[in-house]
Every structure is written in structure tokens, then in C-alpha cells.
Amino acid sequence: MFLQYSPVQVLMRRIQFIEIHEQAWFPSFLRDEATDALQFGFNLLNAYVPIAPLLQRALESTGERSNGDRSIVDLCSGGGGPWFGLSRRLQADSPALHVWLTDKYPNLGAVQNVGTASRNDIAFYPGSVHATKVPGELKGFRTMFTSFHHFSPGEARAILQNAVDAGEGIGIFEITRRAASTIGLTLAWALMLFVCTPWIRPFRWSRLLWTYLVPIIPLVLLFDGVVSCLRTYRPQELREFVEKLTGCEYQWEIGEHSRAPGEVTITYLIGCPRAAVPGIH
Does some domain include residue 279? Predict the structure, then answer.
């Protein structure tokens, strides 16, 4: 795929800086409020639905099944990510689909919402899971949505290497980009929280407090959103990661997906063991 970047994009170098809500010292109740707000945004925009065909093709290529079921292990899931909408799309072609949601800091308050919305097709893994060291019992195609940028280059390579060592397929998808336009959308989303917060579920009076009276949630999400954009890897940087991996041979597809003008551009990396059905190219 031939990619073009504007001069502004080229000059916008990646930075490795912290995001507040992912820090161990950040209060867990505020972290859950932040991930609930992000989850509301995923559900509202369905931003990742356009990559469903890419993901479906990867699943068909790997042919990963256990007792007739197809499993996905989602890493850094926060409040659930885009899987509520994506699972319905994928189940049309893969009815026996089960999704494990995992996170280093699981949003335990989201577990009930997941169970209610997913008809047992989506479940939270109960323990803490670091993306560089996925427990051996979690088998299935690995996915990461809007989270790969959290990791330093060394950790990012370790995530990919861990998947290769386990012989599992992996898909990385990012709607954040090192681009002025995306940073502008982040600002717009933070401002939208002042309108949308009463509709975020589960409803909490505390969320109104930390949004309107003491606007910590919008400020944290604005700061973290801008940092996320500045930390996001470009396709060429992703290619450099996979070139340094060792172990069994994988087939990699890396690029940017946008079907129509004005549609959110999604940076993606998909890797499947070469021994699987050769559907990725």
C-alpha cells in the first residue's frame, strides 16, 4: 500500500509520555469512570466496525478453533472496547465466537454490563493480564484496539513476540494518529462529554461530580487523548517491529484503512502463522 503524509504529519515525531489513567497511582474509581466514558464513545461511534472484514479474514486464515468454537483474546480492553458491536458483525459468519476481554487493571464494574449485553459470548478474564505476558490458558486470536500506542517500542515488540512464541494470530487496530486532524477530534470528544455524560451507563452521581463540578474526567481524557495521538505508531514503524521478530514464520499485513472520505482512518497490523491458510497478503 502506498501511503502519503502531509508535511505536518512527517514533522510530528512520536513521543513516549505517560497517559494519566493508565498509571498505578491514578485512583481506580476514576480510571473506571474514564474507561466507561471511552466505552460510551466506542458504542456511539462504532468506529471500528469498518475493519470487521479484515478481522474476519484473519480469523478464517488462522482457523483457530477449540471444541468447534473460535476464540478471541482482547488485550487492554478497558470497559470492553468495540467488541459489543464487532461481535455481532462477526457472529453473522462465525456463530461460535467467544471473546475474552482482559486488562492489566480490569474494570470490574463493567463485568455486569458485559454479561448483560453479550449473551455470554463476551466475558472478562478475572485476573490482571499484561499484554507482553499473556497467560498460557488464554488461547485464541489476539486483538488490541486503541491501546498498542501505550507501550514503548521495546514493549510493543515484546507483545508481538509473545504472540509469535505462542503461535497465536494477532491484530492491532488504532484510530488515533499522529496528525493534527485527529488531535482536533480528540478535543471535540472531550467537549462532547459535557453533553453526553448523563447518558453514560451505568449512571452514577459521582460521574456528574467529576465531569461538571470538578471536571477531572474530561481533562484527563483530553490530556490522554492528545498523548495517545502523539504516541501512535505509523505503519512504517510497525513494519520495523515485525522485521525484528524471531521464531516461526508469520504473514503480516500492515496499512491504513479508510473506505470513504471523512471516515476515520484506522492503522492496522495483522499477523498470522504462515502455516495457516494463506489468506493474508
Answer: no
